[in-house]
Amino acid sequence: MSSGIALGREERLAELCARLGGELDAVARERVVARIVLPEHATRATDLVVVTSARFVARASAHPGVTLCSPEQASRLPAGNRWIHAHADWALAELLDGAAPPAVPRGPAHVDPGAEVAGDALLGPGAVVLAGARIGPGSSLGPNAVVYGNVVIGARVSVGAGAVIGRPGFGWVTGPSGRVRRMPQLGGVVVEDEAEIGALASVDSGTLAPTRIGAGAKLDAHVHVGHNAEIGAGCLVAAQSGFAGSVVLEPGVQVGGQVGVKDHVRVGARARLAAKSGVIGDVPSGATVAGFPAVPRVRWLRAMARLLSR
Questions:
Q1: Distance between CA atoms of 61 and 53, rounded to whole angstroms?
Q2: Which residue, 99, 120, 146, sits at the end of a domain?
């Protein structure tokens, strides 16, 4: 496997800068780039190296290509071959988009005649769409993804391989005789526009009203969303996190990996839950919490420092 990602054709740096923004060193305006590589693999004048962290500066200081860098790192890099961009990672994503193969391969899928699937939706091999489901325009289902009935998926939504959307939620009730039975979960799921649900993630159907994934929310692989939960617009959830029934994440919440959130907890807008946190109570807007039970991150760090100093 070759190092780096080819752009398909040589691109003039001045044209890229005009299209994507940023500032160029004067002598770099006539440079061209043909592939994007890690600093240690840069061997050509047409290589583009991205530096957004101080740990890459030393390796990127002597290569012969062009450096796309954040303003914070620009002063640490030699002048002359810099493309300085306030959102360097975003610019990289735009460049890679044009070089990426199709994210979802086309293949035979099972679509029930009672389902509605937009004409330009992309269904991967083995995907299953059951009667009553609706898939919006520009959306995609990865291989072996399953969408149950009473699920509405909006426009430009990405559902990863093996994800399951709309299965009956984990709800059980006990009768007078002590016998346990399942609570029917008939509310379905709504996934709003431009959300992303990662591979092997699961989103359970609500009981009376839909479980909801907000517009632009991004769920990583192996994330579980319980019945009646609401994941707000623009939330970012890292892998292996789980939300019990009726959890509410307000818009813009960021969740680290392997976080667990107790049922009926509300997490305020733009709050941050550190990796491996166990959240058993409401979290205020804008707060950052960590640990189990989750507390303000600074308090948790102080407690860990005292514990480790013994």
A1: 13
A2: 99
Report d(CA 118, CA 124) in Å as an integer: 14
> How many Å apart are CA 267 and CA 255, to the nearest integer?
10
Q: Quick check: is 227 catalytic?
A: yes
Alpha-carbon distance of 310 to 287, in angstroms, equals: 29
Based on the domain organization, do 170 and 286 belong to the same domain?
yes
Which are the contacts of 190, defined by CB distance < 8 A and separation ≥ 6? 151, 152, 154, 210, 211, 212, 213
End-to-end, the C-alpha distance of the chain in Å comes to 50
Question: pLDDT per residue over 14-72, tens digit each?
Answer: 999 999 999 999 888 889 999 999 888 888 899 999 888 888 888 777 788 899 999 99
Which residue among 85, 224, 227, 264 is the active-site one?
A: 227
170 & 91 share domain = no
Cis omega before residue 125 (within 30°)? Answer: no
Side chain identity, residue 278: G
80: domain CATH number is 3.40.1390.10
What is the rounded average pLDDT for all residues in the chain? 92
List pLDDT tens digits, range 98-118. Answer: 776 666 667 799 999 999 999
Q: Are strands 82-84 and 23-24 parallel, antiparallel or unpaired?
A: antiparallel
* Total residue length of the chain: 310
Strand partners, 225: 203, 243
Q: Is residue 153 part of a domain?
A: no
CB 268 within 8 A of CB 248: no
Pair 7, 98: CB distance under 8 Å: yes
Whether residues 61 and 175 share a domain: the answer is no
d(CA 14, CA 170): 55
